[in-house]
What we know:
Elements: H1 5-20, H2 27-38, H3 43-57, E1 61-64, E2 69-72, H4 86-103, H5 105-119, H6 122-127, H7 151-160, E3 163-169, E4 181-192, E5 195-202, E6 207-212, E7 216-225, H8 230-239, E8 254-260, H9 262-270, E9 278-282, E10 287-293, H10 297-304, E11 310-314, H11 316-331
Antiparallel strand pairs: 1-2, 3-4, 3-7, 4-5, 5-6, 8-10, 8-11, 9-10
Helix pairs in contact: 4-5
Keywords: DNA-binding
Domain WYL: 153-220
GO molecular function: DNA binding
Amino acid sequence: MPITRSAFQRYRLIDEVISRYPRQYSKQRLFELCREQYGIRSLSSLEKDIQRLREDHDAPIAYDKRKNGYYYTDPQFRLLRLMLSPDDMEALDYAREVLTATQGASVAGELANALQKVRQSLDIIREVKTEGLTRRVVYVEEKILGGNRHYVPMLIRAVNQNRQIEFRYSKHDSPEPDPKLRTLHPILLREVGDSWYVIGYDENTGKERTFALDRMIGLELLPDQCAIPPAVLTSVSELFEHIYGITDSSGPVEEIVLSFTPLFGRYVKAKPIHQTQEVLSDTDTECVVRLRLAPNRDLLMHLRSYGENLKVLKPASLVQDMKESLAATLAGY
Length: 333
């Protein structure tokens, strides 16, 4: 049965007092606190709240007559402990491990504290009856997340422990009925467009390789330690400074000059294409920006998304790639 916001606030206060100060708050003292903060008018109201907590939320509330105070018979109990599904818990652990790897232990620690608070409050918050809202006021885009995201914590552990990984891999462009088993020395992970990739050293080819997690099958951590040549480590560390997206580029870093219509120029200034972006000119007729990138397939696909609002000025090789790509598109109509 849904509860009101005011009842939720009282329940939260009662739970906090009993859990933090067991056997220290008498009925009268707890009533006075609830009256002061939430305006309850009688002891019977407090008694009803406590009875409701016992019956509806299985709160093991007891009263110590000798010490004249409420306490939980189960010290680990928290009224608002989460009613999470295994998927919910996996998602929270995933977030914590990713934060540990990407933002450092201090940020992950803050998340752990926040998650503890969430674990203590989410189930009753889900029951709270929102008062006064008659329509939805926030809309967010539903994202289609890349598959095998549960591999991310495993891969983070592999990198941190310097362990090799083993998996089968199915390519989009040449699917195999029985993908071969691969071994990789993982170096880092990268998230692009809600999909995850692992970049590592392939001992068979002697080069760095990139694999999408959504195409990996049967990922396993091996006991074998990684042996990555220093030159490969340096190359991978610098790889994404001048790459858009995830696909490798066989060419050098070049000066890419793009001309946008004034309207789309404002969009690109507000949300730059890449960290190397510079505005060369911004007039009533066009906005010209410069990037320093190694052209690749991901960049070409992104530039095409601007349609008639973009003209590639430099380099000549990228201009030609755009022409050929657009011509191939038109040939299909």
